[in-house]
Write the structure tokens for this entry.
Amino acid sequence: MKKKKILIVGLTGGIGSGKTSVLQLFINKGVPVYIADIEAKKIMTEDKTVVQKIIFTFGEESYVAGELNRPYLASKVFGNQKELDKLNAIVHPAVRQHFLQYVSEQNAAYLIYENAILFENDTALLCDYIITVTAPVETRIARVVARDATTAKQVKERMQHQWTDEEKMAKSDFVIYNLDWDDTMTQVEIIHNEIEKRIGESS
């Protein structure tokens, strides 16, 4: 018997939108989740081919005692689009391949693929549906300043490298307004039920 195709639901949102908290609500419902950033960090340390390519491209200093030298690599790619593109060309295909392998191993009706740059790196094309988590810009800035002990100016600079919420929302099937937590939980419940309903109608 042929295995039924699992639905891929992308989840994204700008810095400070509260993606991680929203993701936990789906995890609580038993939905498998794949967090691209976490897996990418593992791959950059554990995938021998990726490690070799990073060393070849950025030098032996890219790793210290077998661990990725993040400050060094950041200094190479920060503010240098050409170098960042080189790094992404190494890491993104490996993450994509790893994700597709993960998908093939799941038995749930749908899974969540969480990626902060879902649209920016074209992985939105892998998704059947897309959820964008949003919140007012000032709220997002305040959250990140409190969380990362950074400055509002630095947060705004990071935001400039991501699509705006308006751009993401225009290309999304669902939007979660993450301001009031009780309301957020209700929105997740509604979206979860709607996705399961659509899966039932299509089967």
About this structure: The chain has a mean pLDDT of 92.
